[in-house]
Amino acid sequence: MDFSRRDFLKQAGATALAATAFSDLFAEPAAKKLWFDISLAEWSLHKALFAKKLTNLDFPELAKKEFGISIVEYVNQFFKDKAEDKTYLAELLKRAKDNGVSNHLIMIDGEGGLGELDAAVRNKAVENHYKWVEAAKYLGCKTIRVNAFGKGSDEEIAKAAVDGLGKLGEFAAKTGINVIVENHGGSSSNGKWLSGVMKQVNLKNVGTLPDFGNFCIKRSATGCEESYDRYQGTQELLPFAKGVSAKTYDFDEKGNCIETDYTKILKIVKASGFKGIAGIEYEGSKLSEYEGIKATKALLERVGPTV
Fold it and tell me: SS3 for 44?
């Protein structure tokens, strides 16, 4: 049979189209896009950092190259004397930019409780955080995470925390930085208490960082004596959330987190309308830090699209 060039091209095109359609039947479905971004909390690597196996300056590159994560959350303990060192901060910022990494927040510890009952002690704690607000701004972060602890009754600490967070929030607002409180033990691990404090502070740039695993209110030498329901607490804190902390410790053979039902908790997060950043914070000991981070990331990527 004598085919013209046009006939040949038509037949070739039809054959290719049929082959494509056939292969599509057996192709893997496209991965569903996550409705949240994933960041890496530096605390996930605290053992390696304390052991001097890596430094804070190494963190952005490691996050990107080892774990494929492009958003990071620093911990001030690993550069606690560098908040006002512009040379150091410039190098840290350069390393982040060179690796295509976004600096998201700094977790602040060791600068005093914003819920201390003594006004002078509380105000000193507020002022201690000013340098970290400015460091966060310099690094391009949007947020600092603080502690609202104090000694006293829940009611007394709440009143003090409203004052301390309010003052720090007003200062941070001048630079466009958010101030967020994590459920981090004591009164703050009571979801109702912390959400009540947020309602009283009532500032747009002051919010919460719900941590899926930090709902122990009272600890003893043998472990947690009193805890708050993590699902209820997360739900209560979400209206004020400017991020969530995806805490993990142990995993089963299927890769599921043992202590937290991630399908259940991510459903709660999604139902709230949250579309921000989930920070991986692995604190387990059965897996290495690297393995634990990768397991948590895989869990979020697997469960996230299904809820």
Answer: helix
Q: Going along 108-236, which residue ranges are E strands?
A: 143-146, 178-182, 206-209, 216-220, 223-227
Give the separation between CA 72 and CA 227, rounded to whole angstroms: 29
**DSSP annotation string for 243-289:** -EEEEE--B-TTS-BSSS-HHHHHHHHHHTT--SEEEEEE--SSS-H
Q: How many CA atoms lie within 13 A of 283 on its CB side?
A: 13
How far apart are the C-alpha atoms of 298 and 20, rounded to whole Å? 31
- 83: tokens are 């908040």
Whole-prediction pTM value? 0.88
CB atoms within 10 A of CB 274: 20
Q: Report the distance separating Cα 229 and Cα 249, nearest Å.
A: 17
d(CA 144, CA 43): 14
pLDDT along the chain (307 residues), means of 10: 48 48 44 90 98 98 98 98 98 98 98 97 98 98 96 97 98 98 94 98 98 93 92 98 98 97 98 97 97 98 97
The encoded tokens of residue 221 equal 């030498």
